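pasting for the record
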Amino acid sequence: MTTAVGSTPTTNTASTTSSSTSAARTSLTSNFQTFLTLLTTQLQNQDPTSPMDSNQFTQQLVEYSQVEQQLDTNTKLDSLISLSSNQSSNLAMSYLGKNVTLTDGSGTLANSSATWAYSNDNAAAATTLTVKDSSGNVVYSAAGDATSGTHKFTWDGKDAQGDVQPDGLYTMTVSSQDSAGKKVTTSVASSATVSGVDMSGSSPMLVIGNAEVPLTSATMVTN
């Protein structure tokens, strides 16, 4: 489900938790009132020559009080979770129509073109670029620029056999090694436009083309 501006996100989890807490509080209140009624009745009808131990009743009152305080704490936590969820949803909605930078390797193939920027912290002896589809299958692999600094790579959407892959979300990884075989630190980034926001799950997802990425994948937003 793609949500447009002004739509209200679903909060099934928060609602379920809140209902459970409310039911528990109702049950506790009912049991507590029953306990007080029984206690009062017992005190009114106790044998004056053998009075009941008040410490036991006091301990039970304390235990009920502790449970009630815990339920109050759970209610406050539910409110905080709901507030945090609403803030995440509002943040995601603000990304609509904006260009976002993705730094988890994600990139969108559209009209047989996907572009990434990658960098080597230091010069490498060899650099390999690998592109995988949404199922994790390798669809493309080739040597990349091994020099230090930032480089641009544009993929035409064709696999090793020359077959054109469908538009969608792909992930590129970069592996670089120096002449001694040690790993060289690399990074990957891509830019895409957010066309929608999916609120159907437990956390908002940014819709990019016909694919979705987590809100946390976007590290920079521009107009």
